[in-house]
Every structure is written in structure tokens, then in C-alpha cells.
Amino acid sequence: MAKNKTTPLSSKPLTINSFSAMKGEGEKITCLTAYDASFAGLLDESGIEILLVGDTLGMVVQGQASTLPVTVDEIIYHTRCVVRGRQRAFVMADLPFGSYSTPTLAIQTSSRILKEGCAEMVKLEGAGSRLEIVRHLVDQGIPVCGHIGLLPQSINQLGGYFLHGKTDESARTILADAKLLEEAGASMLLLECIESGLAAEITGSVTIPTIGIGSGCDCDGQVLVLYDMLDITLGFKPSFSKNFMAGKGSVSEAVEAYVVDVKAGRFPPRKVKK
Ligand code: KIV
């Protein structure tokens, strides 16, 4: 798909503005996590538009039980590797747990991730007290992606991984948080494990692009953890993910199939109401 004749890939690097334009035009945005230069190059060539250097690297690369142990230095190291490997894709990096608890600390951490890691956007989890932090980062010229729904950095507080927004009260809070993050200056929202109808409502209620994971097919784009969709992850596999390697001869073919399916609105499949 990425290199076919009808939809040639422009070699122009993608920017923050590319994704607002895609939302406006109803074109789905493709995103996968990436942690090194080789995969970054392959994903980029296969048509992935956003490479997320996620703190899932703690789990899938380092073998940790959660994302919490990941350090700022580790995110910077992996982001630099990813940036070296990509040509066109936009690179977003996670702010690790404990690295953005005050505006000053958040600005220090994010500046390092942009200066030393060369990321183009940082992602942080939550709203509430984070709104002030988003405002400070944006004021310093640092683009921010907000992350709402399931917050893996709060796993000890949540007690487990589950779908969010199922009750009226939690749906109201998540929708309000999405709007407040946009107002605070976030340029993108990652919606993790949010009930699909609510994720669709959020996507229609904000002007910034939403990227979903386990949040249904009506988000502006989709992201998966690379190792889950390549079926490399050992142990627990999230039910919303899919093994794109099944029946494919190479990693490039698997990633191209993901790009085709996301662009066509076929992944994730729409749930039929019984
Ligand atoms: O850290 C990460 O990889 C994420 C996933 C939810 C995509 O944020």
C-alpha cells in the first residue's frame, strides 16, 4: 500500500499540521510504537505516520512489569535511535512516570526530550492537575499530546487494565477532560481503552486529532504497541490488538496491512450491537 502507484508516499516530513489537516479531511492517521532505528525506518517506509516512543518500552523491551520504571534518559536514548531511522514520520515521545509532576520539572524533562532526543511532541497522562502543566509546556513551544482513559502510569491506583467510560459519571469526566486538554493547548489526544461510543463522541467534540487504542474505530487515528501487532509480546496480549503477522511473509507486509486496514477504517472492526 505504502508504495503503490495510486497513493504515492510524499517524502515531505509530516508535521503537527499534517494531522489537523488529515482530521479535517477525514483521513485516518496511522501510528505505531517504535523504540529503535531499524524498526523506525521500516515502519516509516511502510507508511506509518506517527512513531510513538512509548514508555511501553519498559515492558516490551526491558521486560519490566509496568511502564513505571522507565527513566527520562532511557526515553531520550530510544527517541534518538528512532529519529535517526525515520525519514518522514512524526516522532512523539512519552514523558515517563514522575518526570512531569510540576510545571518546572515538566519543562526541564520535555526540553531534554526535544533537544537531546529530537522528538517533535511529548505525551503525558491525565488531566486535572496536568492541565496547568500542559499550559506551561505549550507556552514554552512544546507540543503536547494528552493521554486519557486507561492511564498505565496510574496502574497501582487503578488496580488493573480495564475499559473506561462505561458509567455515565466516568463518561462525563473523560469527555470533559478531553475538552479541557484541548483548551489547555494539547495538539493531540491519545484515547486508551475508552468505550467506543464515548471515544466517537470525544472525536466529534474536539478539533484536535484523537488517536485510539482499544477505543473503537471512530477515532481520527489508531495506535498499537508494535510488538503486540507483530505477535512478539510474550504473555498477556490485549484483546483489542491483532496479530498482523498472521499469513504475512515479512514485517513490512504486516505493517503495510495495518496501514491499509486503518486507512480503510477496517481496523479496529466496528462492533455490531446485539
Ligand atoms: O507507551 C505507549 O506505548 C502507549 C500505548 C498506549 C500506545 O502510550
Helix/strand order: HEHEHHEHEHEHHEHEEHH
Helix content: 25-40%
Largest sheet: 8 strands, parallel, barrel
Contiguous helical run count: 11
Distance between the termini: 34 Å
Brief rundown of the structure:
With 274 residues, this protein is of the alpha/beta class. Helix content is 39%, strand content 14%. It has helices spanning 16-25, 37-45, 57-60, 72-85, 103-115, 130-139, 155-158, 168-184, 196-205, 226-229, 251-263, and strands spanning 29-33, 50-53, 90-94, 121-125, 144-149, 188-192, 210-213, 221-224.
Model description:
The chain is an alpha/beta fold and about 270 residues long. About 40% of the residues lie in helices and about 15% in strands. The chain has helices spanning about 15-25, 35-45, 55-60, 70-85, 105-115, 130-140, 155-160, 170-185, 195-205, 225-230, 250-265, and strands at about 30-35, 50-55, 90-95, 120-125, 145-150, 190, 210-215, 220-225. The protein has an 8-stranded parallel β-barrel, surrounded by 8 helices. Strand 4 (about 120-125), helix 6 and strand 5 form a beta-alpha-beta unit. Helix 2 packs across helix 4 (about 70-85) and helix 8 runs parallel beside helix 9. The longest helix is centred in the middle third of the chain and has 17 residues, at about 170-185. The relative contact order is 0.14. The model is unreliable at about 1-5 (pLDDT under 50). Bound molecules: 3-methyl-2-oxobutanoic acid.
